[in-house]
Automatic annotation (TrEMBL), chain B:
This protein's name: AP-1 complex subunit mu-2
GO biological process: intracellular protein transport; vesicle-mediated transport
Subcellular location: Cytoplasmic vesicle, Clathrin-coated vesicle membrane; Golgi apparatus
Gene that encodes the chain: ap1m2
MHD domain segment(s): 168-421
C-alpha cells in the first residue's frame, strides 16, 4: 500500500519537470488551499510531501510559505516534521510570516507528548530569526526543567543556538547557572550537550569553567557517554590543570582504558588530553604515545579509507617527535594494490621516515615496486621517496652500509630509466638532479645514467632537469654536446619557456668547459634567440649572455659557474626530534590532514638552485619554499642570472627564527585580487613610517624598503626573481608611467608551528610615487620597474636619461631615504608570517638593486 | 566535532538532500564541491578533505552517493568521518541499500533521521536500534500523534526494549575470522593478520543476562588454568552492551544483548599465519606472441577441513587474447573487463594440491602503456574452523523468568585481503 503510494508519487514528481517552477508552485498552492484536500488528512499530507520534494529538487517554493504555516497546526507528527523542515529552510526570507508559526510552536511545547515538545523546541531555535528570540526564551527555560530527557537535550542546545544568533547579547546568568547544574543531569547526552552549549555561550570567557569538581564528575561519567560524548568530554578536559602530581596520575590511570579504546576518535581524543595534561612530564607523553601505537596501527588497517588516511596523517605528526615509534612496524605501511593514491603517497612518506639499517633492503625493494604504479603521481611520489631515502642513506655517513645502499638506490633509479616510460624517466631525471645537488658523491653514477634518456623525455619539467644536469656536469657526459645540439636544432619548435631558458644556460656552461664542440651551436642558439625569438625573457637572457661573452671568458665563468651542489642541505636529515608541544595542539584536528594536502598541491618544481630540497618533509614535488634558506634559493639562478644574493645576513638572521614557507598556489585571479585589495581598509598614513591597522582577521601594513641603489630591471626579471621565492606578481603599471606600481601576492605557511592561523594570504603593492613623496615627508627615489630596454641604455652609461625620467636627482642626494613604499594586506592576520614575508621581499629587492649596480 | 551542514549528493554533484545544522556556512558553498573534486581527480590527488576558501569539505563516497560534511572550523576529522560512516550505517539499516534511489524513495524518513542524528552540529541519537523505535517507514502510515514515548531514549538499557517475547528462545553465535595476507613476489610473507568477529542473532524473551566464555589466554592466565589452546586477542572491540568494566577486571564478557542481529565483538590477532591457500605462480610473458601462466594452489590446512567456493584470480595483460585453459580441478574463466582469469574450485580439501595452466596470445603490436602489477588474489571460505583456534567454551543465559534457551555456535574462516604479488 505504501509502496504503491510512493510509486504514484514518483510519477507525479517525474511529471513536474515539464512544468516551469512557477507552474509547479501554482499547482502546489492550489492543492494546499483546496478545502477538500485540507479536510482529508492523507491527501493534505501528500500535498505537503510534494512541496518538500520540490524543495529538495531545488525548486524555489518559498512562495508557499503562508500556506505551509497553516499546515503546521496538525496532530499528524510526520506532517509537522515536514512542515518544520520547510519553515526552517525559508524562515529567513519571511521573518514576518514566521511570527505566525511561533504560536503553534509554543502551543506544541505544552503538548503531553515529549516527542512533540522536543520537536517544537528544536525547530523554534532552528528558524534562526533574531526577531523571534523573545518568544523562544520562555519555552527554552521551561524546556531545561522538562521531565523528559529528550526535551532537555534539545533545550540545552537551543540556548547555544540562541546565543549563536545574537553573539553580542548577554545570556541570562540564571540560564548559565542552570546549564552548569544540568551537567549533573542523569542523562549523559544532556550532560554532554550542556558542555557543548556552555563552550559556545562562554566562548568569550574561554569556554566552560573546568575546575576540579567538574573534572572529576565528568571523568566519572565518561563511561556512560557514547563515543561522540566521550570525545567531547575529553576535548573539554584538555583545559584542566591538575593541582597535584597525585591528582594528575589518578586522572591518567582512570583514562588508561580510553587510551587504547578501539574507537579511533576516542583513542585520539584521549591521547590529545594526555599530551595537554602533562606537557611538563615528557616521560608520560612518551609512554602514552607508545601505548597508542597499537590502536593507531589498527586504524591504519581500518576498512574506511578516510579513517586510514586520518590515522596516517597523525602518525606523521607523532614521528616528528618519536622517529623510532613505528620502526619495527614498517610492514604495516606497505601499500595495497587497490589503495587510493592519497593513501599510498602518505604511506610512502611514512616509509621513508622509517628507513634504518635493518629494513633498508626490504624497503627499497618495496618502493621500487611502487615506481611502476599506474597512477603517474603515485609513481612520481615513489621515485621521490626512493631519492629521499637515498639522501638519508648518504647522510647516514661514510658508513659502509649507508654507502652500499645508496648505490642500490641509484641502481634502482637507473633500472627505471631502462623502462623507457615517459613519466617515469621524467621523474627520475628530476629527482637525480635534486640528488646530485644534495649528494654530490652520486654525480658520477648520475652522469652515466642520463646519457641517452633525452629520447624518452617529453615534458618540460623533465627536459629542464636534463638540461641542467648536462650544463652543470657536461664535462663528464661524453654525449652532452650532441644532446644539446638536438635541442638547439629544435629550439624553433620549442614551446616551453623554461626549457629555452635552461637550454641557454646549459649551452653557456657547456661552452665554458668544452668550447670546441659548443662554439658553433652556441652561436646559432644565441643568434636565434636574439634575432627571432619573440619571448622577451628568452631574448633578454640571450642578450645578457651575449654581452657577458664580450666581457671575456673569465668574467663569464665567474657569473655562470655557481655552485654545483649544496651538501649542507643534507644536514637537514639529522634533524633532532621536535618537542611534542610543537604539534600537540593540532593533534586530532583537521590541520594534519590539510598540511599534507598543501605540500602535494603543486607538481611543478624548478632547478635545485631555486628550491630547497628538504627530503624529510617535502617528499613530493612541492613549490613551497622555506625562507630560512632563501640564500640558496636565490643563489645564482640558472634561468635568471640577474638574481644574486648580496650580504643580507641580518635580514636572513631574523627570518631564520620564523620558519615560514611561501607558496603561489592556490592561484589568485586578477579579479579576486582586486576584490580583496579593495576591501575597506583603514590606513592612517600620518602615523609614521610603519603603522598597522588590524581588523579581527585582516591586517594592513605599510613599510618603506630602502633600496641602496635604484632598481634597473625589467618587469620580467622582477617577476622572475619574485617567482623564485614564490611570490606571484600580478600586474605592473606600464613602463615610464609615474607612479609606478607592482601588485603581487603569495600564501604563507608557517612550517611546523602549530598555531592558528597557520596559513595566510598576503597581497602587496609596491609603489614608487615619483618626484618627492610629500605625504610621507621624504623623498622616495626608488624605482621598482623600469622597462627592459632602459636597462640596456643605462648599462651603456646613459644614466642621465633615467635620472631625468625618474627624478632621481633628489634621490641621489639622499640615498638613505630611497624607498619603495610597500603596502601589504594579510588575511588572516599573522604578524610573524608577515615579518618573515617582508624580510624575504626586502632581500629580493636588495638583491635586484645590487645586481644592477 | 562541529559539522556545519550535511549533504547527500548524487554522482553529478546534485544535492539530493541536505540539512543545515549550524547556519555558519553558506549552503551554496556545496556548489564548489564537485568542481573541486574534478580538479583534484584530474591532478590525481583526490583527498578526503578539500577546501574552498574558509570552508572545508569532508566527504566519503558510498555506492552512487557522496556524503559531505562542511565546516569552517578546525574540527576533529576522525570524528566527522566516523559520523559520516554512522550515517551510512543507519541509512543502510533503514533502507537495506543506501543509494540514490533509496534516498529519493524515502526522503521523508531521511529528513526525520537527519533531524534526530545531529543537532547544532553535534551527534545526538545515533543508535539505529533506538531510532527505529520512533522513526519508522510506517510513519508514513497515518497515525495520530503516536503517544508512545520511546522508552529506550531514556532507558538504562538503551539498546533493548522491554517486553520482547519469543516462543522458542535461541541464540545463534557466528565466529567469523578473515585472514589478511600479503605475500611478496619471491614467496615470503610480508604481513599477515586475522580479523575476527563474533556475531549474534538473539531471539530471547525479556531482559536476559548473557555470559560468553572464550578460550582467551589472558583469562586462563588469570584463573590459573593452563590447558588446551588459548588465544591472545588484540584491539578487542565490543558492542556497547558489553560491560567493559567487568571485562577489564576479570575478562568476563557479560551483557544484555540487543534483540535480533548484532556484532558482539571484533578482534585482531597479529600473528604470523601460514597462508591457508598457498599459491605458486609462473607467469611468462613472451613479447609480441604469448603469455604462459602456471598456477599451483595448495591447501595448507587440516585434512578434515574443506575450503568452499575457492576463487583464484590471476591478472593477465589487458591486450591478451585467445585464452586457453587446462585445470586439474575446477574451471577457469577469462574475465576480459577485469583483465583476469578466475579459477573457481567449488570444494578444496586440506592438504591437496591443484594446478591450472593458461595460455594467452599477445598482439604483435605492443601496448605502449605501462600497466600496473596487480597481485593474485584468493577468495575462500572454510567452515567449522578458525585459524586462531578461538572457541566459544560456554554461553550462559539467565533470565528472571527462568526459561531454558539454546545457544548455537558456528565457525567460519574466510579470506580477507589476501594478496600474492607476481613477478610480471
Amino acid at each position: 500500500m505504501i509502496k504503491a503510494r510512493l510509486t504514484l508519487f514518483r510519477l507525479s514528481a517525474a511529471t513536474m519537470p515539464y512544468l516551469g517552477s512557477e507552474d509547479t508552485v501554482r499547482e502546489l498552492r492550489r492543492a494546499l488551499c483546496n478545502p477538500n484536500v485540507q479536510s482529508d488528512q492523507l491527501r493534505y499530507r501528500n500535498a505537503i510531501l510534494k512541496v518538500i520534494r520540490a524543495m529538495s529538487q531545488g525548486v524555489d517554493v518559498s512562495g508557499l510559505f503562508s500556506e505551509m504555516v497553516k499546515a503546521c497546526a496538525t496532530v499528524d507528527i510526520v506532517q509537522k516534521k515536514l512542515v518544520y523542515v520547510f519553515l526552517c529552510s525559508y524562515a529567513t526570507l519571511n521573518p514576518e510570516l514566521s511570527l505566525l508559526v511561533i504560536n503553534t510552536l509554543r502551543k506544541d511545547c505544552q503538548d503531553p507528548n515529549p516527542m512533540v515538545r522536543s520537536l517544537a523546541l528544536r525547530n523554534m531555535t532552528n528558524l534562526r530569526l533574531p526577531s523571534l528570540v523573545e518568544y523562544v526564551e520562555q519555552p527554552l527555560t521551561a524546556g531545561l526543567k522538562d521531565r523528559a530527557a529528550s526535551v532537555r537535550r534539545v533545550a540545552v542546545l537551543g540556548w547555544a543556538k540562541l546565543h549563536n544568533l545574537q553573539t553580542n547579547s548577554e545570556i541570562d546568568a540564571a540560564v548559565v547557572n542552570e546549564l552548569y547544574s544540568l551537567l549533573r543531569d542523569p542523562d549523559p547526552v544532556v550532560m554532554v550537550n550542556c558542555l557543548r552549549a556552555l563552550e559556545e555561550i562562554l566562548k568569550e570567557e574561554g569556554g566552560v569553567a573546568i575546575n576540579k569538581p567538574i573534572t572529576h564528575h565528568l571523568l566519572n561519567r565518561l563511561k556512560e557517554c557514547d563515543i561522540w560524548g566521550q570525545c567531547e568530554v575529553l576535548r573539554t578536559l584538555q583545559r584542566y590543570r591538575p593541582q597535584s602530581e597525585d591528582e594528575l596520575f589518578d586522572i591518567l590511570s582512570l583514562l588508561d582504558a580510553s587510551l587504547v579504546s578501539p574507537h579511533p576518535p576516542v583513542m585520539a581524543a584521549t591521547l590529545s588530553l594526555f599530551l595537554s595534561l602533562c606537557p611538563g612530564v615528557p616521560a608520560v607523553s612518551q609512554a602514552a604515545l607508545e601505548r597508542v601505537r597499537g590502536p593507531l596501527l589498527a586504524t591504519c588497517g581500518s576498512v574506511s579509507r578516510e579513517m586510514r588516511f586520518t590515522a596516517l596523517c597523525h602518525i606523521q605528526l607523532l614521528l616528528r617527535s618519536l622517529p623510532g615509534l613505528m620502526g619495527a612496524h614498517y610492514k604495516r605501511f606497505f601499500c595495497g594494490y587497490a589503495e587510493p593514491a592519497y593513501i599510498k603517497q602518505r604511506k610512502m612518506q611514512v616509509l621513508v621516515e622509517l628507513v634504518n639499517d635493518d629494513n633498508v633492503a626490504m624497503l627499497l625493494d618495496e618502493l621500487r615496486g611502487y615506481c611502476t604504479d599506474v597512477n603517474t603521481d603515485t609513481a612520481q611520489a615513489a621515485i621521490s621517496a626512493l631519492v629521499s631515502s637515498c639522501v638519508i642513506l648518504c647522510g647516514l655517513g661514510a658508513g659502509h652500509i649507508g654507502r652500499s645502499y645508496s648505490d642500490r638506490c641509484l641502481e634502482i633509479l637507473i633500472g627505471l630509466l631502462g623502462l623507457k616510460q615517459e613519466h617515469i624517466t621524467s621523474a627520475v631525471v628530476q629527482t637525480m638532479r635534486d640528488l646530485v645537488w644534495v649528494c654530490p658523491q652520486c654525480s658520477d653514477t648520475v652522469c652515466l645514467a642520463v646519457e641517452g634518456c633525452e629520447e624518452t623525455l617529453q615534458d618540460g619539467q623533465g627536459r629542464q632537469a636534463l638540461l641542467w644536469l648536462l650544463g652543470v656536469y657536461g664535462e663528464r657526459v661524453s654525449s652532452a654536446p650532441y644532446t644539446l645540439e638536438v635541442f638547439i636544432d629544435g629550439v624553433r619548435c620549442e614551446a616551453s619557456l623554461g626549457v629555452k631558458m635552461e637550454l641557454l644556460t646549459a649551452s653557456m656552461r657547456l661552452f665554458l668547459c668544452r668550447p670546441a664542440e659548443m662554439q658553433d651551436m652556441l652561436g646559432r642558439l644565441l643568434h636565434y634567440c636574439i634575432e627571432e625569438e619573440t619571448d622577451i625573457c628568452v631574448r633578454d637572457q640571450a642578450l645578457l649572455y651575449y654581452r657577458l661573452l664580450h666581457c671575456g671568458i673569465e668574467e663569464t665563468r665567474k657569473v655562470l659557474q655557481g655552485r654545483r651542489s649544496d651538501p649542507s642541505l643534507g644536514v637537514l636529515i639529522g634533524r633532532p626530534a621536535e618537542p611534542i608541544s610543537q604539534w600537540a595542539c593540532s593533534f586530532n584536528t583537521l590541520e594534519p590532514l590539510r598540511q599534507g594536502a598543501m605540500e602535494t598541491e603543486s607538481a611543478s618544481r624548478g632547478s635545485p638552485e631555486h628550491v630547497t630540497f628538504d627530503p624529510k618533509r617535502n617528499n613530493d614535488p612541492s613549490d613551497t619554499l622555506n625562507c630560512g634558506h632563501d640564500e640558496e634559493a636565490l643563489h645564482s639562478g640558472s634561468d635568471s642570472a640577474i638574481v644574486r644574493t648580496d650580504s643580507t645576513a641580518d635580514v636572513l638572521g631574523s627570518s631564520l627564527t620564523v620558519p615560514l614557507s611561501l607558496s603561489v598556489s592556490p592561484a589568485l585571479s586578477p579579479e579576486e585580487f582586486e576584490l580583496l585589495w579593495l576591501q575597506p581598509q583603514v590606513l592612517h598614513t600620518e602615523q609614521g613610517p610603519e603603522k598597522m591597522k588590524a581588523d579581527k582577521d585582516c591586517v594592513c601594513v605599510e613599510e618603506h624598503v630602502r633600496c641602496p641603489e635604484i632598481l634597473h630591471c625589467s618587469p620580467q626579471s622582477l617577476q622572475a626573481a619574485m617567482q623564485l621565492v614564490n611570490i606571484q606578481t600580478l600586474a605592473f603599471t606600464p613602463p615610464h608611467a609615474l607612479p609606478l606600481r607592482v601588485y603581487l601576492y603569495t600564501h604563507t605557511q608557517r612550517a611546523r608551528v602549530a598555531v592558528t592561523p597557520h596559513s595566510t594570504l598576503i597581497l602587496g603593492e609596491l609603489l614608487y610615487t615619483g618626484e618627492g613623496n610629500q605625504k610621507v615627508g621624504q623623498v622616495d627615489g626608488g624605482v621598482v620597474v623600469v622597462e627592459g630596454r632602459e636597462d640596456e641604455q643605462m648599462k651603456e652609461g646613459e644614466q642621465a636619461t633615467a635620472d631625468g625620467l625618474s627624478g632621481r636627482d633628489t634621490g641621489r642626494t639622499d640615498r638613505e631615504q630611497d624607498g619603495v613604499k610597500v603596502t601589504l594586506k594579510q588575511h588572516p592576520r599573522d604578524e610573524n608570517a608577515l615579518k618573515g614575508f617582508l624580510s624575504i621581499l626586502t632581500t629580493v629587492l636588495h638583491t635586484l638593486s645590487s645586481e644592477s649596480d | 566535532m562541529s559539522a556545519s551542514a550535511i549533504f547527500v549528493l548524487d554522482l553529478k554533484g546534485k544535492v539530493l538532500i541536505c540539512r543545515n545544522y549550524k547556519g555558519d556556512v553558506d549552503m551554496a558553498e556545496i556548489d564548489h564541491f564537485m568542481p573541486l573534486l574534478m580538479q583534484h581527480e584530474e591532478e590525481g590527488l583526490v583527498c578526503p578533505v578539500m577546501s574552498h576558501g574558509k570552508v572545508h569539505f569532508m566527504w566519503i563516497k558510498h555506492s552512487n552517493l557522496y556524503l559531505v560534511a562542511t565546516t569552517n572550523k578546525n574540527s576533529n576529522a576522525s570524528l566527522v568521518y566516523s559520523f559520516l560512516y554512522k550515517l551510512v550505517e543507519v541509512f543502510t539499516e533503514y533502507f537495506k541499500e543506501l543509494e540514490e534511489e533509496s534516498i529519493q524513495d524515502n526522503f521523508v524518513v531521511v529528513y526525520e533521521l537527519l533531524d534526530e542524528l545531529m543537532d547544532f552540529g553535534f551527534p545526538q541519537t545515533t543508535d539505529s536500534k533506538i531510532l527505529q523505535e520512533y522513526i519508522t517507514q510506517e510513519g508514513t502510515k497515518l497515525e495520530v500523534a503516536k503517544s508512545k514515548v520511546p522508552t529506550t531514549v531514556t532507558n538504562a538499557v538503551s539498546w533493548r526494549s522491554e517486553g520482547i517475547k519469543y516462543k522458542k528462545n535461541e541464540v545463534f553465535i557466528d565466529v567469523i575470522e578473515s585472514i589478511n595476507v600479503l605475500v611478496n613476489a619471491n614467496g615470503s610473507v610480508m604481513s599477515s593478520d586475522i580479523v575476527g568477529s563474533i556475531k549474534l542473532k538473539t531471539m530471547l524473551s525479556g531482559m536476559p543476562e548473557l555470559r560468553l566464555g572464550l578460550n582467551d589466554r589472558v583469562l586462563f592466565a588469570l584463573t590459573g588454568r593452563d590447558k588446551g589452546k588459548t588465544v591472545v586477542m588484540e584491539d578487542v572491540k565490543f558492542h556497547q552492551c558489553v560491560r567493559l568494566s567487568r571485562f577489564d577486571s576479570d575478562r568476563t564478557i557479560s551483557f544484555i544483548p540487543p534483540d535480533g542481529e548484532s556484532e558482539l565483538m571484533s578482534y585482531r590477532i597479529n600473528t604470523h599465519v601460514k597462508p591457508l591457500i598457498w599459491i605458486e605462480s609462473v607467469i611468462e610473458k613472451f613479447s609480441h606472441s604469448r603469455v604462459e601462466i602456471m598456477v599451483k594452489a595448495k591447501g595448507q590446512f587440516k585434512k578434515q577441513s574443506v575450503a568452499n567456493n575457492v576463487e583464484v584470480r590471476v591478472p593477465v595483460p589487458s591486450d591478451a587474447d585467445s585464452p586457453k585453459f587446462k585445470t586439474s580441478t575446477g574451471n577457469a574463466k577469462y574475465v576480459p573487463e577485469k583483465n583476469m582469469v578466475v579459477w573457481t574450485i567449488k570444494s578444496f580439501p586440506g592438504g591437496k594440491e591443484f594446478l591450472m595452466r593458461a595460455h594467452f596470445g599477445l598482439p604483435s603490436v605492443e601496448n605502449e602503456e605501462l600497466e600496473g602489477k596487480p597481485p593474485i588474489t584468493v577468495k575462500f571460505e572454510i567452515p567449522y574452523f578458525t585459524v586462531s583456534g578461538i572457541q566459544v567454551r560456554y554461553m550462559k543465559i539467565i533470565e528472571k523468568s527462568g526459561y531454558q534457551a539454546l545457544p548455537w555456535v558456528r565457525y567460519i574462516t574466510q579470506s580477507g585481503d589476501y594478496q600474492l604479488r607476481t613477478n610480471v
